[in-house]
Amino acid sequence: MPLQTFRYAACGGSNALFGLIIYFFTYWYFFKGAIVDIGFFAFEPHSAALFLSSIITFIAGFTLNRYVVFTTSKLKGSIQLFRYFLSFGSNLVINYALLKLIPVFSQLFTICIVIILSYFTQRHFTFKVHKDGHTEFTDLQ
User: Fold this and answer.
1) pLDDT of 91
2) Which stretches in the chain have pLDDT values below 70?
3) What angle do CA 18, 22, 28 make, to 5 degrees?
4) pTM as predicted
5) What is the pLDDT of residue 80?
6) Which of 52, 129, 122, 138 is nearest to 81 (CA)?
7) Pick from 109, 103, 66, 110: nearest CA to 85
């Protein structure tokens, strides 16, 4: 297994587990399974837990990918962050849609799907790694 793939699996798996722990903790203990009303919108508890855990894992995931997994990428940090946000946003929409099917238990299933999609998106778009394992050396303007 290539080192980069191992690092991605280790960091992604750790971040997914971290997100799952945050999700379950906030769902059962913070939101206590109740509707979360923020004035102009009311979240179902599983949606509120998903969005809260997503904010935290977004920061952790980008940091791990940038400084541990895809360390040879020469793209500007702002471009990486924007691309990561696009990838993350797409994965969040997929996660949310699947979560609506079976709240709480679908989270485990969606994590598996999102990890696979996320790896390919980040490898070929966010941090642009070529087939030979090298990253893109030109910055997009």
Assistant:
1) 82
2) 102-107, 129-141
3) 145
4) 0.70
5) 92
6) 122
7) 66
Q: Are strands 42-43 and 36-37 parallel, antiparallel or unpaired?
A: antiparallel
Task: Please list, in sequence order, all residues whose beta carbon lies within 8 angstroms of the beta carbon of residue 84, skipping any fewer than 6 positions away.
Answer: 58, 61, 62, 65, 122, 126
Query: Cβ(127)–Cβ(73) under 8 Å?
Result: yes
Nearest-angstrom CA–CA distance, 50 and 44? 10
58-67 long-range Cβ contacts below 8 angstroms, 24+ apart: 58/84, 58/85, 58/88, 60/15, 60/18, 61/11, 61/12, 61/15, 61/88, 62/88, 64/11, 64/12, 64/14, 64/15, 65/8, 65/11, 65/122, 65/126, 65/127, 66/127
Q: Residue 137: what pLDDT?
A: 44
Residue type present at position 79: I
- pLDDT on residue 124: 80
From the CB of residue 95, how many other CB atoms can be counted at a distance below 10 Å?
A: 21
